Amino acid sequence: MFVKLGCMRKSADEAQQTRERIVAAGVMQSSVEGLFGLTLGPLAESLGMSKAGVVGPFGNREGLQLEVVRQAADMFTAAVIEPSATTADGLPRLRALIDAWCEYLEASPFPNGCFVTAASCELDGRPGPLRDAMHDVVSRWRGFLREHITIAQAAGDLRGDPDDLVSILNGAAMSANQEIQLLGDHAAAKHARRIMHACIAQLQP
């Protein structure tokens, strides 16, 4: 019995590791080719697997694409949100988020820059589950920013419309990603950081 249970655990662990390898490779391919450029043949070849073996754990290609979106969002969370988790809510947390956000843009874990920015542009005019998933990712991030802006306002540290500031901060980050990836401007993340902090400074009483 103990041997059988041990084999079952090993099999489950191996299946999970395989799933994680597939998703990680899918994230990298999608960063370069886009989510709709995620093709099973090249992905399977890069992993030394069959196409059926690659798609099997996810049911179909769309299931794999959705897992890729979730993984990319988790990577963003780990790089931008988690480092500021011990910072006080409100203005201190907002400043820490900006710093981590711009560091993430400068040293992106993805071959083609910010995955969320690229996927948002790819999916914004293509209704369906992938667009819905990315809509949820972006909405939660914007809501998180807005929450800390309103906390800072309640503490008397900021004034102005919170939605305006959310749009300004996101706009600066998206512009920096374009400048880095398309224009080859490696100082763009530092520029975006200055812009974001300057906007916040102007909104302080």
From TrEMBL:
<dbReference type="Pfam" id="PF16925">
    <property type="entry name" value="TetR_C_13"/>
</dbReference>
<dbReference type="InterPro" id="IPR036271">
    <property type="entry name" value="Tet_transcr_reg_TetR-rel_C_sf"/>
</dbReference>
<dbReference type="InterPro" id="IPR009057">
    <property type="entry name" value="Homeodomain-like_sf"/>
</dbReference>
<dbReference type="InterPro" id="IPR011075">
    <property type="entry name" value="TetR_C"/>
</dbReference>
<keyword id="KW-0805">Transcription regulation</keyword>
<protein>
    <submittedName>
        <fullName>TetR/AcrR family transcriptional regulator</fullName>
    </submittedName>
</protein>
<keyword id="KW-0804">Transcription</keyword>
<feature type="domain" description="Tetracyclin repressor-like C-terminal">
    <location>
        <begin position="90"/>
        <end position="196"/>
    </location>
</feature>
